[in-house]
Write a structure and sequence with these properties.
- Helix content is 44%, strand content 14%.
- The protein is of the alpha/beta class and 264 residues long.
- It has a single domain, classed as Rossmann fold.
- Helix 1 packs parallel to helix 2 and helix 1 crosses helix 8.
- It starts with 19 loop residues before the first strand and ends in an 8-residue tail after the last strand.
- Bound molecules: NADP nicotinamide-adenine-dinucleotide phosphate.
- NADP nicotinamide-adenine-dinucleotide phosphate binds next to helix 1 and strand 2.
């Protein structure tokens, strides 16, 4: 390979013009923020969730604020056939799929002893099996295109264990492994695989914890930045990993946690 200093391209850094993205669980929360940011960077974005009305409202709001093209794909990520059909529909409508953000993640903090067999399986289905199958389907298109960005939303719980949270922690740890496995297997097809590991964000799911003064006081002490993450603070990580500027970043887990996991 020639070693040379090249003239940088004139296009803006992190531009996603011409790219097509699918983001699961994007009707609200972190997925919604990432969808908006990808659209602002120029991508055509397809948002997923189970509730069609919520998705339609989110698509309208995102379209109005970003000026971008936002389509909806209502399906349950645990329905593999529905996920396959949605990706086929994206290929038919847009002609390609460049970015998959596997963002859906269910959580139910309880000791393992309080989980039934089927409850464990259900959460692993949602948090680990579904992202794996969606990545497989998306990668089929990406291999043909010789371009793709697989982005998996894990959690700092994929690195460190919290008390009484065994199923979520196991699934997120599994997603870290999946991220690396896909990075190794698909890189030669022009596809990168990376993860985003959020820390504690003030999203709808955490509303009760944000409102809990004692818990928020704990966040202030535990997180070096001294506060909850604002949902929009996740967005830059997604745009970066989806962009051409991240073309040599592969198998990485980008932790976005205000420094929570690096402090003693
Ligand atoms: N918030 C945090 O502080 C935090 C911290 C670490 C990691 N994370 C991770 O970040 C991701 C997003 O978290 P969040 O708090 O923003 O999410 P959230 O608000 O709990 O969920 C986002 C959307 O996912 C959709 N959804 C849930 N189950 C689904 C399914 N089976 N199929 C399709 N859509 C489904 C829901 O819409 P419908 O009800 O319409 O389906 C919901 O609007 C998750 O993977 C989570 O584990 C979050």
């Amino acid at each position: 390979m020639p070693v040379e200093t090249r003239t940088p391209p004139a296009r803006p850094l992190f531009s996603l013009e011409g790219r097509v993205a699918l983001i699961t669980g994007a009707g609200r929360g972190l997925g919604y923020e990432m969808a908006g940011a990808l659209a602002r960077a120029g991508a055509a974005v397809v948002i997923n969730g189970r509730d069609r009305d919520r998705l339609a409202a989110a698509a309208e709001a995102l379209g109005a604020t970003t000026g971008g093209r936002i389509d909806i794909a209502p399906f349950d990520v645990t329905d593999a056939a529905a996920g396959r059909a949605a990706i086929a529909q994206i290929a038919a409508t847009h002609g390609r799929l460049d970015i998959l953000v596997n963002n859906v993640g269910a959580r139910d903090r309880r000791p393992l002893a309080q989980y039934g067999d089927d409850e464990v399986r259900q959460m692993i289905e949602t948090d680990l099996v579904a992202p794996m199958l969606l990545a497989r389907e998306a990668a089929r298109l990406m291999v043909e295109q010789r371009h793709g960005r697989l982005i998996t939303v894990t959690s700092i719980a994929g690195h460190v264990a919290n008390r009484d949270d065994p199923v979520y922690t196991s699934a997120k740890g599994g997603l870290t492994g999946l991220t690396r496995a896909l990075a190794v297997d698909y890189a030669r097809h022009g596809i990168t695989s990376n993860a985003i590991a959020p820390g504690m964000f003030a999203t709808e799911t955490n509303r009760h914890l944000v409102a809990d003064a004692a818990f928020s006081a704990f966040v202030d002490v535990r997180v070096p930045i001294g506060r909850w993450g604002r949902p929009e603070e996740i967005a830059g990580a997604a745009v970066f990993l989806a962009s051409d500027e991240a073309s040599f970043v592969n198998g990485h887990v980008l932790v976005v946690d205000g420094g929570q996991t690096i402090r003693m």
